[in-house]
Specification:
Helices cover 68% and strands 0% of the residues. The chain is mostly helical. It starts with 29 loop residues before the first helix and ends in a 14-residue tail after the last helix.
Length: 251
């Protein structure tokens, strides 16, 4: 099978070969397009990751609060809601249903709606990891914080969360990599990310294998880069000799 990588040097409207592959002026080659699409993929994924981490940290924490049954129920409901509705359905709900219920949302760019949908979907999974990390800590750590005169919020801030987050870095790495792959659903609402590019350009050039292969490589590079960044963070934040003992730190 012959590979036709020169297809990336074609101009997207005329099909003519662009010198140097990168278009200039008003011309845009498929190479320009895939780089732009990769940028949109990274933008959606990273913004959604921020939403997921912030919301997941809050929800995961309140699910372990002592003497706060209603907050725990709220956190549990959040996780069950966002975890059990398929991501693509959530994308369509944010894109078609919510703007109909809240007219102010009609002016929100579709990319923001996708970021919210993807971020909140992933936040349920992050919340589970944070909850498990807190509950994996020995119960004595909570008592030690309270014995020092810290209130519940200070105990979480200075004692429990710093240790729990170190425990959950490996599963959070997996979630961070997954969010890059899950960003592909953005094509469903016509955001020109990598999957949208591969499908559209494959049809236009009759070279779908090359287009999908290039998109696959860029997805792999993105996920691997996140893996290495998280690995670096895990190494720099590791506490020597610390091993989480099974406990009931969340109760």
């Amino acid at each position: 099978m012959a590979w036709n990588w020169q297809v990336f040097c074609r101009e997207t409207t005329t099909g003519e070969t662009v010198v140097g592959c990168f278009g200039r002026g008003g011309d845009e080659s498929y190479l320009n397009w895939i780089v732009t699409a990769w940028g949109w993929t990274l933008f959606v994924a990273l913004c959604a990751l921020v939403v997921a981490l912030v919301a997941g940290l809050v929800i995961g924490t309140i699910r372990t609060l002592p003497n706060s049954p209603w907050l725990v129920r709220l956190g549990n409901a959040w996780v069950e809601l966002f975890r059990n509705i398929p991501l693509l359905v959530q994308i369509f709900l944010w894109y078609f249903v919510i703007p109909g219920i809240f007219p102010a949302m009609k002016d929100v760019p579709s990319v923001v709606l996708v970021i919210l949908a993807l971020g909140l979907f992933t936040s349920a999974r992050v919340a589970e990891q944070v909850r498990a990390g807190i509950q994996a800590l020995p119960r004595g750590q909570r008592y030690a914080g309270l014995a020092l005169g810290l209130n519940t919020g200070q105990t979480y801030r200075y004692v429990l969360l710093p240790m729990a987050l170190r425990i959950v870095i490996p599963p959070l790495t997996s979630e961070s990599m997954n969010i890059v792959k899950n960003s592909s659903v953005a094509f469903a609402v016509s955001i020109a990310e990598l999957t949208f590019f591969a499908r559209q350009s494959g049809e236009e050039t009759s070279a779908p294998v090359e287009m999908y292969l290039a998109a696959t490589v860029l997805y792999a590079i993105s996920a691997f880069a996140i893996n290495r960044v998280m690995g670096f963070i895990e190494k720099r934040t590791r506490v020597p000799g610390f091993v989480a003992a099974g406990g009931m730190g969340g109760h």
